[in-house]
Amino acid sequence: MTDLHTRAAGASVQPPLSQAVGYVIVVVVGIVIALGMSRSSMMVITKVLKKTTGEDNEKTEMFMTANRTVRTGLTASAVISSWLWTTAILGSSFVGYDYGVAGPFWFAAGCSPMIVFFALIGISCKRKIPDAHTSLEVVRIRYGRIAHIVFMILCLINNIFACANMLLGASAVISALTGMHIIAATFLLPVGVTVYTFVGGIKATFLTDYFHTAIILIIACYFTIKAFTFEEVGSIGNLFDLVQAAAKRHPVSGNHDGTYLTMTSKGAILFAILHICSNFGLVIMDTSYFIKAFSAAPSSVVPGYTIGGVAYFAVPWALGTISSSLALGLENNPIFPTYPRRMTSTEVSNGLVLPYAAMAIAGKGGAAAVLLITFMAVTSTLSAQVIAVSSILSFDVYREYINKAATDKDIIRASHFGVIFFAAFSAGFSTMLHYVGIDLGWTLYMLGVVTCPGIFPMAFTILWRRQSKAAAILAPILGMATGLGVWLGTAKHFYGAVSVSTTGEILPCVYGTVASAFSPILYSVVITLIRPQNYDWAEFRKEKLGLDRVDSETTVTSSGQVEHGPRNTSSLDPRELKRWGRIAAFWSVATFLGHWVIWPLPMYGAKYVFGKGFFSAWVVVGIIWLWITMLVAIFYPIVDGGVQQILQVVRALRGRGGGLDEAFVPSVKEGSRDGEVVKVGDEKI
């Protein structure tokens, strides 16, 4: 085998699939999924669910929060889905290609702790303001309209850049694999998302997220098998030898001994700091996370987010490690798409490490599989972003500033407008970024500069009663200014100019992100000390936020029984919620210490270089964890209430009148609570 050329521009790789395949996946598959949530389909499904379970999408509480009854299994699956970004699937591979085994690990460690931490935020919201729909409602009630507008802008910036990050990576991969024009992909990807989110609301995003997540994880698990049954690899030990040989051909600057097989990587640790800060911003300032927390049943928030967060760790870790190792080990082999040259910096930054690795081991089938999971990932996560923005436009703009007397129909109409508007806007914004030379790598690195300023002021709004109104308003604004100034200043200092290329380098992005994330703590504390607030959490409950609840709500309880009648969220047992809060705090600390301190830092400090046995164990544990994640995401929602609800629907449809009318349900215990058994006909459910 010949040595590879350097990462200079080389001959372009011909798309392995035709444009027709690209349009079929992006347009036809998108339309098929949308038709599953089409008006006619949803009318049938809605009618059945309304009669048998009381779920009515014509009610705002059902459309926006699924009537706050989503169980642990579906919550965990939705949490995993929420982080199955194209960025995670493609980005973890390219940081593995750049930094070695440390890259995918730190990518995963930069996601799981804050997902679990959000369980603490979510249960705190359940305790203090159980009828809220968005995080911005919490800000408005506590601090008033000026703070409300400030945080609304911060949340919208967060959603805009998050969508751009997803669309840039997905469009580049679809274009590379099929030859489809990148702008066509950018504008067509949101179409199916818009249709099913428009019709189905948050419950549609839960259900389609479940479907998409199942496909993504099945294909990811397939790659973990295919990688080691491929003749040129054969085993984990052989993959180790290939990666070790790659380090000798082109050692990694900043890694101990120049090897890819060490956690002692300067570039990877800088990325880790940047990534965990950025992701805290993406979680705390993303209203879709609050919506899913508000949608979950009170007993499901903490276990759902904890299980989902821990399970998710395996996706970027295992898939990123395997795919980047394959790319590094096989790129001097004629089977690799770029042979005889290395991948260019542009190809790596566009997220093509995973596609090229898949093409090397599985040919056109691998390319088609990556195309499918890219499409599923971007549409799944884009749907959450779209409904998050539509919730802001409907509840926080329309209901608050335009029509205070808005009815269910008015708010849903505003939500529909928000879905269409944001889908079109995000596609246009991503197109603008593409034409000025910005790609997945640039947005991945700089994302935290604009998403982090509101982290601590928002968390303090929910967790710290003393933060003052002035601090809540000024701290994120000053933090944003500080972060942008540091980011641009360090780009000029280190590289002599402020340009797209210099501002996308890791050092300026690390400095800017850290400044954006942590300077608001100082600003908030100092401003608060001047005139601290002593907020009474009971004030949250004085404002009526919930609209009319579903008239005939039916919920499967934790014991597998069914309760009917409207649930009064304000009467939830405060002692039980406080207990869940303690559990959430414990798991938040434990997850951070495990993923960020106890596991990786001793290896970093010891300058440990992986041997063949340790690398084999590392990969095997990652694969097992990934398969467990697949089982959790696919089967846990079915076991946890799914079967009972299906049986409930079937039984109701077979009863007199086909629904839960008076003839079918002769009596319902008045004021029934969790754990009580309700008679349906002559049966106890």
From TrEMBL:
It holds the Pfam family SSF. It is found in: Membrane. InterPro entries: DUR, Na/Glc_symporter_sf, Na/solute_symporter. Keywords: Membrane, Transmembrane, Transmembrane helix, Transport. Gene3D superfamilies: Sodium/glucose cotransporter. The chain crosses the membrane at residues 20-37, 74-97, 103-125, 146-168, 174-199, 206-225, 268-291, 303-330, 369-395, 416-436, 442-464, 471-490, 510-530, 580-598, 618-639. Its main location: membrane. GO terms for cellular component: plasma membrane. One of its GO terms (molecular function) is spermidine transmembrane transporter activity. NCBIfam families: sss. This is Na+/solute symporter. It comes from Aspergillus ellipticus CBS 707.79. The lineage of its organism: Eukaryota, Fungi, Dikarya, Ascomycota, Pezizomycotina.
